[in-house]
Amino acid sequence: MNFVNCYEDASRSEAYSTLEFANTYYLAYRDLPAIISEHVTGTRALDFGCGTGRSTRFLEKLGFNVTGVDISEDMLRIARATDASGDYRLVPGDNFDELAAGTFNLVLSVFTFDNIAGATKTRIFRDLGRLLTPNGTIVSVVSSPEIYTHEWASFSTKDFPENASARCGDVVCTVITDIQDGRAVEDIFW
Length: 190
Ligand SMILES: C[S@@+](CC[C@H](N)C(=O)[O-])C[C@H]1O[C@@H](n2cnc3c(N)ncnc32)[C@H](O)[C@@H]1O
Known about the structure:
It is a single chain. The chain has two domains: 10-141, Rossmann fold (3-Layer(aba) Sandwich), CATH 3.40.50; 145-188, no CATH class. The model has no long low-confidence stretch (mean pLDDT 97). The strands form two sheets. Strands 3-2-1-4-5 form a five-stranded parallel beta sheet. It contains six helices and eight strands. Strand 4 (104-110), helix 6 (118-131) and strand 5 (132-141) form a beta-alpha-beta unit. It is an alpha/beta fold.
């Protein structure tokens, strides 16, 4: 499948950077502090698919020493400008060789795997697993199927009735209504 990561785009990145934790995003992030505090010991974290750094700064506020990685230079440019002391790295091809194996207590991924196709997911999960300490934890937040067939405080799908018949691996579309970019966001149905 020839899937393009729609976040490799300067104006979409600019628009995405205005998102904080309102509406549906409030719900997506709401339970993470409790989940992380229950399942993670230690303070070293990797934010996989950090985007413009919202999820990275969220972890920093929880007390983590965080490295954010992404494949979109446009998103990373804004992350670095917003959080000058943060550690944000481009990982072309999801090559994690620059990161020390066995050193992260937590890998957090918020909505990143919505944008990753098929077998690549498995490969990346395996490689992220190698970066964890022996008792480290991966926490992955992804969109549930219902996201793509209903209206939400932060998303609209009414212009994409074809989402209703999507099967695992198909491209599905949403519009993020909280930002000034009305173009469809393409995801890959889990
Ligand atoms: C929906 S944004 C979420 C950003 C951030 N986690 C947040 O919650 O604000 C998804 C991010 O995942 C990144 N992404 C997509 N595919 C990726 C991949 N294969 N490896 C790393 N990052 C990826 C995109 O470039 C984008 O910045």
